[in-house]
Design goal:
Blueprint lengths: L7 H9 L4 E3 L1 H14 L4 E6 L8 H15 L3 E6 L3 H4 L14 H15 L8 E5 L1 H4 L4 H8 L4 H4 L3 H8 L6 H17 L3 E5 L3 H13 L6 E5 L25 H9 L6 H8 L4 H12 L5 H16 L2 H16 L9 E4 L4 E4 H7 L6 H9 L3 E3 L2 E2 L6 E4 L2 E6 L3 E7 L1
Parallel strand pairs: 2-3, 2-5, 3-4, 5-6, 7-13
Antiparallel strand pairs: 1-6, 8-11, 9-10, 9-12, 12-13
Helix pairs in contact: 10-11, 12-15, 12-16, 13-15, 15-16, 17-18
């Protein structure tokens, strides 16, 4: 009778792709060998605190690793941290996170899973909410759990250490977060837990608490944090350097082309389905001085649009990009804004904010100063400039935001 799993070596080849660390790797091999012999899949855990309801391709890095475990026959368990989301993960934070309500974390969790289903096999993904077990713990249970870890161990975390040395407050409930995340591993008996490199401390606490609970500890697997389109900070909505997985093909394509050349290979490796042979070929091309990186970036943009939309959408997004930015034509589907006055003179920053092409006048001012605004094909670089709204007008803000303003 044939085994439903690939060989352990084949599985490890897939698991290692793009991975930062496997701790300890030898324990994962033992687990995979046991799974291969018994036919029982490993339980692969990924926890998410849905503090925000929208996902970008930075989130996709670890979700794609979970999907790879699914593809080789293992059980993916996505833990929606509706309870821990009320605490707020302090990882990487210089201040205490604002608390969310249980209803807010539940609603965000639904949106999270809907978007994650673009990456995961939804029918084969087990979804659980950690309020199921954390919400039923008594204060006695919490004290008993807290006794298993020392303050000194908690202060080994870089973010806690920095805040402590700087005299910045650390709430006691933040110390409970890694323990609560560890209880998730105990509750579902996870064999492997996935997370970003910034989650390493929390994942290791899970190993310790599983061991304290008389269980075989999970193996932890960390994935790199994807650098955003600015080429500096990790991808984040807060930094405005993100590519949202639910954005339009036009936005995904254009934003992908804006990444720095030194990120091309990393993006191919971490956020596409390109095979290992093609990856090696891309690496070789990038090392060849005759290669124009822009051609590879265009291919990358098509790959990402195809993942979250379709190959037809990718082709259309590329054609539209070329029409707008190479041939300098206007897009076909410019949104319409009806001006309520017969005509008017208005400050450019007020106009941009009024028609919602910037969230505020200060942001509109910044965009104008950076040279990212044109009105009727004329660049506006003075934030105090006054322009006249007449019959038909085209306002362009940034590289991809167009608006046709007409008088009623």
């Amino acid at each position: 009778m044939s085994n439903k799993f690939a060989t352990v070596n084949e599985q490890m080849d897939i698991i290692r792709r793009g991975t930062s660390e496997i701790i300890p790797e030898e324990e994962l091999v033992v687990k995979l060998e046991r799974s291969y012999k018994s036919g029982e899949p490993l339980i692969i855990k990924l926890g998410c605190d849905p503090s925000r309801p929208d996902l970008h391709i930075g989130h996709s890095v670890v979700l794609r690793k979970l999907a790879q475990f699914q593809s080789i026959g293992h059980q993916a368990v996505l833990i929606i941290g509706d309870f821990t989301g009320m605490i707020g993960d302090p990882t990487g934070r210089s201040a205490t996170r604002p608390a969310l309500s249980l209803n807010e974390t539940r609603e965000h969790g639904k949106s999270y899973f809907e978007q994650a289903s673009k990456i995961l096999d939804a029918e084969k993904t087990r979804i659980v909410y950690n309020s199921e077990w954390l919400g039923t713990m008594t204060f006695e249970d919490v004290i008993r759990l807290a006794s298993k870890y020392t303050v000194a161990r908690m202060l080994e975390r870089d973010d806690f250490t920095k805040r402590y040395k700087n005299g910045e407050p650390i709430s006691v409930h933040e110390f409970l977060y890694p323990l609560a995340q560890a209880m998730d591993s105990v509750a579902i008996k996870s064999d492997v837990e996935l997370g970003g490199t910034d989650q390493k401390f929390n994942l290791l606490v899970g190993r310790d608490i599983q061991r304290e609970s008389g269980m075989e500890p999970q193996v932890i697997l960390t994935m790199p944090l994807l650098v955003g389109t600015d080429g500096v900070e990790k991808m984040s909505k807060s930094y405005g350097n993100y590519i949202g997985i639910s954005e339009s093909p036009r936005e995904i394509y254009g934003k992908t082309l804006s990444i720095s050349d030194d990120l091309i290979y990393t993006y191919f490796e971490l956020v596409t389905n390109i095979g290992s042979g093609e990856l090696a070929s891309i690496k070789a091309e990038l090392q060849d001085p005759q290669t124009n990186p822009r051609n590879l970036k265009r291919r990358l943009a098509r790959e990402i649009v195809t993942l979250y939309h379709s190959s037809d959408d990718a082709v259309m997004a590329e054609e539209e990009f070329d029409r707008i930015f190479i041939k300098k034509e206007l897009p076909d589907d410019i949104p319409l804004y009806e001006w309520e006055y017969s005509s008017a003179d208005i400050n450019i920053t007020e106009l941009i904010a009024k028609v919602n092409l910037a969230p505020s006048k200060s942001e509109a001012r910044r965009l104008v100063q950076q040279g990212g605004v044109t009105f009727n094909n004329e660049k506006i670089s003075d934030p105090s400039a006054v322009i006249k709204i007449e019959k038909d007008n085209i306002l362009k803000v940034g590289k991809r935001k167009f608006l046709k303003i007409i008088i009623k």
